[in-house]
Amino acid sequence: MITKIPFKLIKIEDSGYHLLIEAKINNKTTYLLIDTGASKTVFDASRIINYTDSEDLTDNEILSAGLGTNTMQSKSIFIKTLKIGEFEINNYNAIAIDMQHVNESYEKLGLAAFDGVLGCDILYKYKASIDFKTKYLKLRKRK
Asked: What is the pTM of this model?
């Protein structure tokens, strides 16, 4: 079964583009960047608590790398339902990190803040393809 989800192509100054997709965390609308270079899907620690039933962020012992830093503290949080378009992922154990510096950069460019990054853990697992011509992300689930 293939699900097609529209994304927006956001111009970042003159240097390139980012892909922004609308999703729902526990039935609340959120916005995620699609990032094929991100090994995992991550959420902004200060924003994810607005979407979850629980405000319990659990410290991870392992430091995460990426998003312009060498290492950063990460936290875990349980997401009951992550819905990307009509594509639904249930009982997702999410990673949350401090993404304030990235959202501040977006703000300086006059762009809206986002709540997380859709990374390769989900993109690979669900055999994603990105069609720039039609501006659709396609995700596949086995029957």
From this structure: 0.86
Joined together, the tokens standing for residue 10 give 């956001």
- Using alpha carbons, select from 57, 62, 65, 52 the residue that is nearest to residue 25: 52
Q: Residue 78 pLDDT > 90, yes or no?
A: no
> Residues of the chain with pLDDT > 70: what percent?
88
The whole-number average pLDDT for the span 6-22 is: 91
Q: In this predicted structure, what is the pLDDT of residue 89?
A: 96
Report the distance separating Cα 57 and Cα 43, nearest Å. Answer: 11
Q: What average pLDDT is seen over the chain? A: 87
CA neighbours within 13 Å on the CB side: how many for 49?
A: 9
Q: HEC profile for the chain? A: CEEEEEEEEEEECCCEEEEEEEEEECCEEEEEEECCCCCCCEEEHHHHCCCCCCCCCEECCCCEEECCEEEECCEEEEEEEEEECCEEEEEEEEEEECCHHHHHHHHHCCCCCCCEEECHHHHHHCCCEEECCCCEEEEECCC
- Gyration radius of the chain's alpha carbons: 15
